[in-house]
Amino acid sequence: MSPKDARPRKGAADQVAPEYDADRPDPPYAGNGGVRERRRAPWWVKMLAFFTGLLLLFFAVTRLDLVPGLDDVFGSETKDRTGPAVLKSIRDMSSYQAASGNFQVVVDLEKDTKYVPDAIKGTRTLFVGAGTVGASVDLGGIGDDAVTVNEERTRAEIRLPHAKLGKPALDADRSYTVSKQRGLLDRLGDFISDNPGSEQAVNKLAVRHIGDAAKESGLVSRAERNTTGMLEGLLTSLGFKEVTVVYGDK
Predict the structure, then answer these.
(1) Using an 8 Å Cβ cutoff, are 212 and 125 in contact?
(2) HSE (CB half, 13 Å, CA atoms) of 44?
(3) Whole-angstrom Cα distance, residue 122 to residue 117?
(4) How far is it, in rounded angstroms, from Cα 216 to Cα 34?
(5) What pairs with residue 196 in β-bridges?
(6) Under 8 Å between Cβ of 100 and 156
(7) What percent of the chain is modeled with pLDDT above 90?
(8) What integer best gives the mean pLDDT of the chain?
(9) CA–CA distance, 180 with 172 (Å, rounded to integer)
(10) What is the pLDDT, as a whole number, of residue 233?
(11) Residue 183: what pLDDT?
């Protein structure tokens, strides 16, 4: 073979294979012409991204009210499945509800754990409690010896026990939690518990403070004055000229 025949033909030169670095996770070139081939995401990644975008779009539309009337279609609905109330007992009332007071108290309840930071274990609740306390006079125990009437039936004297305060009744519509700070362990406990964030402690504390305030409010004396006025008006309408009401312990 002559040297001329040994020359490579024009355009028939062998293609040089690209170098491959073993330290690289993927070969730098693949496919035709040495073009880098892009990896495609798995199908489940695409589906997850699609549904995530769909949820974000739905949230933006409903939150910003971009489509009028959408809340009527996807709005929440509250259903009351409570059964009928059952009558447990009936008690005849023999006391005169002479006065009632409305009270409000701000409860600041903090629970700490020794040697543990509040961010880990501890709670602090700011609660506004509103409720009412009534004062009444027991008229059921009035006997014949408690009422004295003169012969002309123009003067009467009635002896009654002192008025007493009733139990404070917390008003759920006017009571609310302002803020509640909880440590990490308390948040986990509320997440696992069947009754997360129970307000029983602050409710009891609010009831106690309202009861203490009612004792210092003069509600008892106000109830006795109102009872006296009621009896005076009743007996005066029956023809009595002078009515005296005396309060004292039996």
Answers:
(1) no
(2) 0
(3) 8
(4) 93
(5) none
(6) no
(7) 35
(8) 77
(9) 18
(10) 93
(11) 67
Residue 45 tokens, joined: 């990644």
How many Cβ atoms sit within 10 Å of the Cβ of residue 168? 23
Residue-wise burial string across 104-143, b where 16 or more C-beta atoms lie within 10 A, e elsewhere: ebebebeeeeeeeebeebbbebebebbbbbbbbbebeeee
Q: How many angstroms separate the Cα of 175 from the Cα of each of 55, 105, 197?
A: 36, 9, 16
CB 242 within 8 A of CB 152: no
pLDDT at 12: 46
* pLDDT at residue 94, rounded to an integer: 82
Give, in order, the Cα–Cα distances in Å from 197 to each of 135, 186, 201. Answer: 33, 9, 10
Query: Residue 114 — pLDDT band, cuts 50, 70, 90?
Result: confident
Cα-only R_g, the chain: 42
Q: Which H, E and C letters describe the chain, residue by residue?
A: CCHHHHCCCCCCCCCCCCCCCCCCCCCCCCCHHHCCCCCCCCHHHHHHHHHHHHHHHHHHHHHHCCCCCHHHHHCCCCCCCCCCCCCCCCCCCCEEEEEEEEEEEEEEEEEECCCCCCCCCEEEEEEEEEEEEEEEEECCCCCHHHEEECCCCCEEEEEECCCEECCCEECCCCCEEEEEEECHHHHHHHHHCCCCCCCHHHHHHHHHHHHHHHHCCCHHHHHHHHHHHHHHHHHHHCCCCEEEEEECCC
pTM: 0.61
Task: Name every residue whose Cβ is closer than 8 Å to that of residue 164 and which is 6 or more positions away in sequence.
Answer: 135, 136, 137, 138, 220
Residue 135 or 113, more confident: 135
| 135/225 Cα distance (integer angstroms) | 11
